[in-house]
Amino acid sequence: MAQRKDGQKTRSKLLDVACEMFSEKGFGDTKVAEICRRAGTNVASVNYYFGDKTALYFEAWQEAFRRDTLPDPLPQEDRAPEERFRRRIHTMVHRFCDAGKKGQFIRMYLMELTHPVALNHEKWRKLFEPRHLHLLQLIRDVAGPETTEEDVRFCELSVINLCRGFLILNPSDVEFMLQQPMNNVLIDKMADHITRFSLAGIHAMRGEVPAQKT
After folding, report:
1. What's the pLDDT tens digit per position in 130-178?
2. What are the residues whose beta carbons fall under 8 Å from the beta carbon of 95, sequence distance 6 or more?
């Protein structure tokens, strides 16, 4: 039993360090030897627990994705579609701006975008599909039944790109452009802006102007 506990501890440590390094350097510049050195184990342990570097990479993706998936503490069924949409935008923007473990998945995604190397895109899409379908349904609920499926999917792409912009911008550049310090208050303001901007566009497609809050 002690060996099993030690083995699980070693595997978890390797995975934790791999998430950190792959999110910092990407697949190509991350060395298995450095992962093992930081994890306090030998190179053979990667082959033993994961098979090879590529398998470790996808396991790290899955682990980072798990950390990044935050359950909603409140039921959503009774909320208006616009409120559910707002909460989703806030979650996405905070995720894209997170510099800690919760943001590792997004940083790994950015690394793969800029230096595509080893990710199995079929596995990636299967992993990501529930989020993709959830956002599509939120947009359908906001847009109404008369909106075409093509417009719904264009809206999803627009929303994701608005949120993703904060991932590719340096935080100091955001502070310079907005003349405010980068903190949770500013992130919430940005999320509120993206929500209003997106809802206005979605409503405009069906010829409506959303009511302004007073």
Report:
1. 888 999 999 999 999 889 999 999 999 999 989 888 777 888 888 899 8
2. 68, 102, 103, 105, 106
